[in-house]
């Protein structure tokens, strides 16, 4: 069975979301509170900007660029430098997954336990598309953990290529 590819560069309203990633407002709120509680142990303090950013990322649960995040309605009017600093700090704290290719705009996605995604990234324009890989890698993760003695082994899979719009 071939992988299923979902283009993530179209507007969110036109993009099909995976049912496993649709979080209700209450579930997203609970997740955000858990993340903020974890972040407090790393020196973060709860701010409205942090809570709004995490809520947007939990609800949409897709890779977004800094520009996309900064233009979300709940973040409109907020200082863009503040949003950028929060994103950088969240990335450093291991709360976000960063996707990108060299000098292209990075995309950020909130890491949600139990939700895993693999992606195609265009080396030319930076377009990101989700790939639903049919063969699960979880058994391989467990085998690696058992053989190495490491705990909580996970993977991130990104394929790089040139999207159809950029291909000659």
The CA-CA distance between the termini, in Å, is 28 Å
Low-confidence stretches: 9-20
Number of helices: 5
- Kindly report the CATH topology: Arc Repressor Mutant, subunit A
CATH class placement: Mainly Alpha
Mean pLDDT equals 82
Let me know the number of strands. Answer: 7
Q: What structural class should be given to the helix and strand makeup?
A: alpha+beta
Can you list the strand order of the major beta sheet? 1-6-5-7
- Global Rg: 17 Å
**How many domains make up the 3D coordinates?**
1
Percentage of residues in helical conformation: 25-40%
Report the sheet-strand fraction.
Answer: 15-25%
User: What's the main sheet like?
Assistant: 4 strands, mixed
CATH superfamily: Winged helix-like DNA-binding domain superfamily/Winged helix DNA-binding domain
Order of helices and strands: EHHEHHEEEEHE
Could you say what the CATH architecture is?
Orthogonal Bundle
Q: Based on Cα principal axes, name the global outline.
A: globular
In brief:
The chain has 168 residues and is α+β, with helices and mostly antiparallel strands. It is 35% helix and 17% strand.
Protein architecture, described:
The structure is a single chain. Helices cover 35% and strands 17% of the residues. It contains 5 helices and 7 strands. A 4-stranded mixed β-sheet has the order 1-6-5-7, with no helix packed on it. The protein has a 3-stranded antiparallel β-sheet with strand order 2-4-3. Strand 5 and strand 6 form a beta hairpin. Helix 1 (25-40) crosses helix 2. The longest helix has 16 residues, at 25-40. Mean pLDDT is 82; it is low at 9-20.
């Amino acid at each position: 069975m071939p992988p299923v590819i979902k283009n993530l560069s179209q507007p969110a309203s036109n993009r099909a979301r995976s049912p496993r990633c649709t979080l209700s407002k209450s579930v997203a709120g609970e997740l955000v509170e858990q993340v903020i509680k974890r972040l407090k142990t790393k020196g973060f303090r709860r701010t409205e900007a942090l809570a709004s950013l995490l809520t947007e990322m939990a609800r949409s649960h897709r890779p977004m660029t800094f520009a996309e995040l900064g233009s979300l309605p709940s973040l409109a009017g907020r200082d863009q430098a503040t949003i950028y600093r929060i994103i950088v700090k969240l990335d450093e704290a291991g709360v976000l997954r960063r996707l990108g290719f060299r000098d292209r705009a990075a995309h950020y996605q909130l890491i949600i336990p139990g939700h895993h995604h693999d992606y195609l990234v265009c080396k030319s324009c930076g377009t990101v598309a989700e790939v639903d890989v049919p063969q699960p890698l979880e058994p391989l993760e467990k085998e690696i953990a058992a053989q190495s003695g490491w705990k909580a082994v996970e993977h991130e899979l990104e394929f790089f290529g040139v999207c159809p719009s950029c291909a000659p």
